[in-house]
Amino acid sequence: MSSLPSRPQDAANAADRPAVSFADLNEMARSGEPIVMVTAYDHPSASVAQDAGVDIILVGDSAAMVVLGHDSTLPITMDEMVMLSSAVRRGAHTPLIVGDMPFGSYEASDALAVKNAQRFIKEAGCDAVKLEGGGTSAQRARAIAAAGVPVMGHIGLTPQTAAALGGYKAQGRTAGAAASVLEDAMRLQDAGCFSIVIECVPSAVTEVIVEQLSIPTIGIGAGPSTAGQVLVYHDLLGLREGRTAKFVKPYATLRDSAIRAVTTYASEVRSGEYPGPEHGYSIEPAELNSLRQSLGQTKAPGRVQ
Ligand code: KIV
């Protein structure tokens, strides 16, 4: 963990930057320097995020949908999350890495929550964990924090309980509903969370919540007033097919580029253009002759069809 003050912002030297600390996040929120968070689920995406100079990588349970092809975040397991998180840790050293506690890994008891939170730290090398919801989740957050594991909260649209919230839609759109999102936020802060993600909440409601909190907030579809923003890696790179949420801004169209590249590869394999001589390895002619002689051959046979 780094000491303050500040980290160089030169992306070219991102891997040489000091690791982002919890104190850095507080200082950034205090000074108004935006915190950049992105999801990553494997070694290459983690190393891209690090080299781009992001502050926090979230190994989100969105991996269930984004990389494992499920219809919701619910099916992903602790073992899968630990495997993905450890790959991310191997790919990035400077961003703070948060492992997302999957559905079923913390709800039943404080003991279960602490045990699984510790797996993210011990087995995957994460710096912190995240869980969804206020209410009972605030109690679980308190237990996890008391066990020495830094916890991030997540309020508003909480995908693990989306069905109970009426689907994937904005939350806190009436005074009463907004007050309940604020109450969740206050409970999580009181439980010892170091930060809270606010998802799909009207920007003006987020502003009220941010005013009331003293810990840094990270928004997704929650307007500009949070201390930081988070997007899903595959959304921001345009790597997913189909419709994306209103808050997603694609900064590239990598799925189209990938399809073009693989199509060209397929066509070159089929036409014989690939591989060319420059893609092969050589052997000394004498060695080749010796091999052929050992097989009783005197000259190269034609290509086997
Ligand atoms: O799982 C995830 O990717 C998340 C972010 C959308 C905040 O929880």
Order of helical and strand elements: HEHEHHEHEHEHEHEEHHH
The CATH architecture assignment of the largest domain turns out to be Alpha-Beta Barrel
Strand order of the largest sheet: 1-2-3-4-5-6-7-8
Q: How many whole angstroms does the radius of gyration measure?
A: 24 Å
Q: How many β-strands, per DSSP?
A: 8
CATH class of the largest domain: Alpha Beta
Within the CATH hierarchy, at the fold level, what is the topology of the largest domain? TIM Barrel
Structural class: alpha/beta
InterPro entries: Pantoate_hydroxy_MeTrfase (IPR003700), Pyrv/PenolPyrv_kinase-like_dom (IPR015813), Pyrv_kinase-like_dom_sf (IPR040442)
Keywords: Transferase
Family: Belongs to the PanB family.
EC number: 2.1.2.11
Strands, helices and their partners?
Elements: H1 22-31, E1 35-39, H2 43-51, E2 56-59, H3 63-66, H4 78-91, E3 96-100, H5 110-122, E4 128-130, H6 135-146, E5 151-156, H7 175-191, E6 195-199, H8 203-212, E7 217-220, E8 228-231, H9 233-236, H10 254-271, H11 285-294
Parallel strand pairs: 1-2, 1-8, 2-3, 3-4, 4-5, 5-6, 6-7, 7-8
The protein binds 3-methyl-2-oxobutanoic acid.
Overview of this structure, please?
- One of its GO terms (cellular component) is mitochondrion.
- The chain is α/β, with parallel strands linked by helices and 305 residues long.
- The chain has 2 domains: 243 residues, Alpha-Beta Barrel (TIM Barrel); 26 residues, no CATH class.
- The chain is built from 11 helices and 8 strands.
- The N terminus is likely disordered.
- The site of 3-methyl-2-oxobutanoic acid (KIV) has 12 residues, from strand 6.
